[in-house]
Amino acid sequence: MITAVASVRAMASYALAELGDGAALSLAQNESLRAPSPQALAAGQVALAASHLYPDPDWTDLRHAIAAVHPVAPAHVLCGAGSMELIGCLVRAFAGPGDDVLGTQYGYAFLSTAAQQAGATYVAAPEADYRVDIRALLSAVTPATRLICVCNPGNPTGTRVPNSDILWLRDALPDDILLLVDQAYAEFDDQDHAAIFRLVDRGNTVVTRTLSKAYGLAGARVGWGAMPPAIGAELRKLLNPNNIALASQAMATAAMKDQAYMRDTVALTADIRERFAARLRSAGYDVPDSATNFVLIPLKDSETAKRADSALLQAGYILRGMGGYGLPHCLRATIVSEPAMTAVADILEGFA
Ligand SMILES: *Cc1c(COP(=O)(O)O)cnc(C)c1O
Q: Which is more confidently placed, 8 or 300?
């Protein structure tokens, strides 16, 4: 019999959202409520015509477009087929059997998968009130900890901690522990992120971002990370060469240059999100403050959450059950158009 290696046999497949038969509207994957910027679409179309050629393996235009927007040097930027690719490779490069990868209780599920892929052990520090507890995270550090990931703002909670918490954590951590700050939703979080990017200069911190959420390019698969050159050199050995398709690089570059479109998306999303959350709160739900393009909706208990989930599905709306995150009493709703959010709130009112 042909068998996979033991560490792979022991793994479960990564649980993506259930997306039904295509007739229902997905609020399950935190995709943008808008199509990509018209400039990104136009650039992608031009690039498609040159698709007989391999893409730029160094993402030169994209890295420079990123550095024109954020306080990072182009040489410190690596790009991935989604930030997932970078996170996975980072974990594999810096943790292995016998090592711990430390995340938080409701942190990004893919981190635990990445740890398993690396043969490392995933450990989660408790959160308090659906929020990262930075002191609990520090307390969970052991001599086996090699890498710590803080997702800020968090998924699936949607909450954020002040960046000063992250700076405090970095100062308190030993220098030989790699800190990964996953900022997949940072565009929706209005705090100043410059000090977080400056941590990269200390040689021990990586900051990841994605084009999948605020830039509406989930289907293009583009993410990037700011990282110290020595860390980037190791990570790069594990990336697929030519990892980002030509058209995707062109779309991402044009999208970065169209900051106004991204900011409009963020403002529109926040507007709909706040009205949706306010309605749920006045119906009696204790919805945590969100600094993302989704909200976490805690229901009375897991049974009620299941019933609400089926009622929403019946009406054509797919939310994301949170059992996989240890929150079986919660549903997560990506912010989509206002009429759809109103319809979802109408249904949820019946389950408050
Ligand atoms: C969506 C998301 C990512 C990135 O996804 P990619 O599409 O691979 O860039 C990373 N972290 C978190 C927490 C996310 O929600």
A: 300
Encoded tokens for 95? 């943790």
Q: Which helix (H) or strand (E) holds 313?
A: helix 302-314
Tell whether omega for the bond before 156 is within 30 degrees of 0, i.e. cis.
Answer: yes
Q: Which of 49, 52, 55, 53 is nearest to 243 (CA)?
A: 55
Question: Of ligand 1's atoms, which has the minimum distance to the CA of residue 108?
Answer: 13
pLDDT confidence bin for 328, thresholds 50/70/90: very high
pLDDT at 19 over 80: no
Q: Is 215 in the pocket of ligand 1 (CB under 6 A)?
A: no
Query: Is the minimum distance from the CB of 161 to ligand 1 under 6 angstroms?
Result: no
pLDDT at 13 over 90: no
Q: What share of the chain is helix, strand, coil (3-state, %, to 5)?
A: 45, 15, 40
Spatial distance between the Cα atoms of 317 and 335, rounded to a whole number of angstroms: 12
Quick one: which of 247, 252, 106 has its CA closest to 182? 106
220-259 pLDDT per residue, tens: 999 999 999 999 999 999 999 999 999 999 999 999 999 9
Contact between 123 and 102 under an 8 Å Cβ cutoff? The reply is: yes
* pLDDT at residue 15 tops 90: no
